[in-house]
Input
Amino acid sequence: MTRFKDFVPHGVIPAVLLPFHDDLSIDEPSFRSHLRDVEMVEGLSALTINAHSTEVASCTADEQSRVLEIAGEQVGDRLPLIHGIWADGSLEAARIAKRAQAGGSSALLVFPPAPFTLGQTADMAIAHFKAIASASDLPLIVFQYPLATGQGYPAATLTRLLDEIPTIRAVKDWTPSVAQHETHVRALQSRSRPVNVLSTNSAWLLSSLVLGCKGLLSGSGSVIADLQARLFRAVAANDLAEARRLNDRIHPVASVFYADPFVDMHNRMKEALVILGRLPRAVVRPPLVKIKDPEIARIREALAAPG
Output
């Protein structure tokens, strides 16, 4: 059952975190509380679950289903839920898509298969997305990785995907090149069937939004969704002074969240929520490990800097 049948991915879409107990089991009460905290922010368009931010790579299929069930109970009648499709094989990706739609998701965020790091062709990418589209008619979001990872889709492949898979309605653009990012914004959003570009360049969000992105999808929205929503509105209103003021508040936090090693970004966001009193503990599943006290101190300083 799809709760928001006409939903097109756009606007401010936080990707929420997934709290764990010390024994690494899912802390369901804390997850519900976290969902309530985020969804209360004014100006959100949707929430994303079962993605990088919820450590989906370490979650079983049953746990992903439980995450969807909890999110549906907590916020599913008020906000659309975007469900991540994290799978190395297309058959498993199709199974996840089918479960996600049956569980009430409103759109699917498709991560690139890890084998593409060894090389990919356009035909492979098309086959992967067709398998997913055959299992679900929900709107699809292409997660565009940096080309240097091997999992990013070259321009010709991306064009074919949009031409041949009509349910693709948005691209979550992690393109690190400003010029390439602007090309995506201009080309994709001006197609005869427009495809929205959602920024995930949270370390330089103001610059990205000014280029004309129709939305943003970010794990840091689990902590600063209010600032992101206000920034998005300011840019849309062409209020550069307000946008720059908000960006000055966001910058210290984004700088510590997206420091090296990049893989610890959501680990740091959990620590931030503990500092803010919104989570009882910051537990991550291996191979991630808890960050050290000096880095936690830097996060505390960054949270204090913008108030």
Summary: The chain has eleven helices and eight strands. The CA atoms of residues 56 and 211 lie 30 Å apart. The first strand starts at residue 11 and ends at 14. Strands lie at 11-14, 47-49, 81-85, 107-110, 140-144, 168-173, 196-199, 215-218.
